């Protein structure tokens, strides 16, 4: 890697892990508060802490890590180094995003933005917080422009050639992000900023939540897809095999692009003011977006099995023994995949209207996203970090560092087992999410939840130890001996079908996506603006 590319990528990665550390501190404290173990000192509020935890972990850690990784992916696969224009755009994007993050953090610390990581109305923050969000979003668009520039530059100089799979995926992820963030940009610019400045007295709460979830659901795929990039492309190389099918991988990313945006209503199933028909339509589309995940599961099993059989494994599951269990580059993402099976099943439960009525706003939902983003995605990002840093810095991933990585992964899984397991269980018993410690005047139900809340705190403490170990491992990685660590990019299996050129017709996919968004959102949004849907009146202003 070019030195300047390494600097750009690793600055993003280090920023991401600094956020993980701060988010981890907030997470530990809030777990202990909720379990009734401690009370917070110095007037710090539970919700202030919860906001910091969500913003650092879910928004800052993920976005910085992903953008850093995507830059490494396009540098690696599109010519071996970044074009100066792409690199400069990357730095400008980073600058805007980091200034935005610092301002947002200050506002949260000053208790002027205790609005949780979802920040929709009617909770109101200081205008500085919203401006900080604008900086973060605009910065990410500039970074996206750098990725598109690198891709277009390569295409221009390789006329008629198929782009490398990893770069195709990077473009898809960034397109998804930019189209999704348009919703939240509209919300912040046209609703939240004028409202927080006092220019308007009212805000349409339902519209604000709708615009947020228009962004909020594809946000989860913005987190997931870079992990899928690792599962599809890097893992086959790490296990010594090949990518099962380039065409299938591209197809699944195209499906994600199409179906992950017009589905936000599945976060609003219990909300009045949106007619059941539109909720139903978006739930149907939600089940469509499950298909590419099932295709991914199929493709991964196929890669593992093909590789095992090529190495002489026998029987139905003999290939399992051929996997490199002691290699953290495989083990951490693999645990992520494994845990994604129950995590995804939980998602299917959430998306079903009747079952959503049981779990909505309970700790079950918190359990769901700690398995998905905080385990499947986070463990994959951790596993990637163990090769990304040494390979970019020209250092060798030593057996000692590998071992520390395995210990860190196991700690994470144990902590998450206790934390997310008890969240799921106590959620089914009715314990609400986003609630500070209370026994509701010693109501027997609430008292019955307490042992689970204590188990959550125990899990959270183990997870905090795992965060610390991860941060220590990162610091140690900068001291690894000089040498070579591979940046793993898998080749495609010989038997795979050729890739239809149609997949790179971005205009077609974006056009179809716009059509789906228009179909799924136009009528309900007009209803919200006119207060015409039964139930929306009275809910609509604050
Ligand atoms: Fe979700 C709420 C539905 C996936 C994150 N979700 C959330 C929230 C977050 C989140 C953060 O319908 C809370 C938001 C808030 O603050 O209110 N979710 C789904 C569905 C899926 C799904 C249908 N969610 C995710 C992913 C996330 C994420 C991914 C983050 C990265 N979710 C919902 C709904 C709600 C919700 C409702 C609202 C609930 C409410 O009422 O508030 C699907 O995409 C899941 C599909 C996944 C699968 C699994 C495929 C398995 C694979 C692994 C294969 C393993 C192998 C290894 C090969 C079908 C790919 C095995 C090898 C061996 C040897 C055994």
Strand content: under 5%
- Which sequence of SSEs, written as H and E, runs from N to C? HHHHHHHHHHHHHH
Given as residue ranges, the uncertain stretches (5+ residues, pLDDT < 50) are: 537-542
Largest sheet: none
Please give the alpha-carbon distance between the first and last residues. Answer: 53 Å
Tally the helices: what do you get?
14
For the secondary structure, the number of strands is 0
Family: Belongs to the heme-copper respiratory oxidase family.
Keywords: Electron transport, Heme, Iron, Membrane, Metal-binding, Respiratory chain, Transmembrane, Transmembrane helix, Transport
Subcellular location: Membrane
Domain Cytochrome oxidase subunit I profile: 10-527
Describe this structure in words.
- The protein has 542 residues and is mainly α.
- It has 14 helices and no strands.
- The radius of gyration is 23 Å and the shape is globular.
- The termini are far apart.
- The structure holds heme-as.
- The site of heme-as (HAS) has 33 residues, from helix 6, helix 8, helix 9 and helix 11.
How are the SSEs ordered, and which strands pair?
Blueprint: H1 3-34, H2 46-77, H3 84-109, H4 127-157, H5 165-196, H6 205-238, H7 246-259, H8 276-310, H9 328-351, H10 353-359, H11 363-393, H12 399-428, H13 444-477, H14 506-530
Helix pairs in contact: 1-2, 1-3, 1-11, 1-13, 2-3, 2-4, 2-5, 2-11, 3-4, 4-5, 5-6, 5-7, 6-8, 6-9, 6-11, 7-8, 7-14, 9-11, 9-12, 11-12, 12-13
This protein binds heme-as.
